[in-house]
Amino acid sequence: MTDLSEYRVRKEPFYQPQGHEVSLFAAAYRRRLPVMVKGPTGCGKSRFIEYMAWQLDRPLITVACNEDMSASDLVGRYLLDAGGTRWIDGPLTVAARLGAICYLDEVVEARQDTTVVIHSLTDHRRALPLDKKGELVRAHPDFQLVISYNPGYQSLMKDLKSSTKQRFAAFDFAYPPPELETEILVREAGVPAHVAAQLVCIGGVARKLKGHGLDEGISTRLLVYAGVLIQDGVTPQDACRMALVTPITDDADIRATLEHAIRATFV
Ligand SMILES: Nc1ncnc2c1ncn2[C@@H]1O[C@H](COP(=O)(O)OP(=O)(O)O)[C@@H](O)[C@H]1O
Ligand SMILES: [Mg+2]
């Protein structure tokens, strides 16, 4: 049997709340409601779930979803080895059996025929049929399902079915307001507050370009990268170019706008 201790969040993760999301998530967990966190990439969704797992003292099993993932990757499969065939529980089954929080990260990346396997776990049944094995796993009382997704990437081809969406309590995440984001950079990158504020300022410029040539602005994650590089002695200009400009766009005009903001900020 899988040992859940490796899934314990041992140390308190640093999480800067943006509102009442901590107490609201705890309320959802008390009733074991499935939770969906929505928001752009790198805005703190995964960190929040990690923090909540720590706070609720539940093991956390995270699955990064992708297109090639099949229902068996979640549920489990028979493996053939020297001893014959044996059943191996997938991560969703392990979490349901043993009472972990199962976090399906970027769930829309998975195909819809994969995503439907979560349905029976997210309604009154709270059970997972292992068809190939002929077993019905009743979810442990502590089990909770959490999914994240980025509505920005949503297309008709890649969206959750309405029948899936309607099984979750949801949280909208966004990039933190400047004061909080500055605080996050100080904590996460170790930069002084004034440098953090300068980076946040550049983030603000990029986020205003969303829809005007940029699909998404600069994430908090990238601002942390820039901060870490600066902290290690890379010049702010180089750090910003590497972490904030080059990754997000190849458009010459947008790069020029961002370069300009960087030069104006770090004089
Ligand atoms: N509210 C927050 N508190 C603490 N760190 C944060 C917060 N928001 C973003 N971060 C930082 O940004 C990084 C990316 O956040 P993450 O949770 O991985 O984003 P995603 O929304 O893509 O899951 C984290 O590793 C952390 O350094
Ligand atoms: Mg994430």
From TrEMBL:
InterPro entries for this protein: AAA+_ATPase (IPR003593), ATPase_dyneun-rel_AAA (IPR011704), CbbQ/NirQ/NorQ/GpvN (IPR050764), CbbQ_C (IPR013615), P-loop_NTPase (IPR027417)
Pfam families: AAA_5, CbbQ_C
Source organism superkingdom: Bacteria
Any GO molecular function: ATP binding
Keywords (A to Z) from UniProt: ATP-binding, Nucleotide-binding
Domain AAA+ ATPase: 31-152
Gene3D superfamilies (UniProt xref): P-loop containing nucleotide triphosphate hydrolases
Annotated family: Belongs to the CbbQ/NirQ/NorQ/GpvN family.
This protein's name: Rubisco activation protein CbbQ
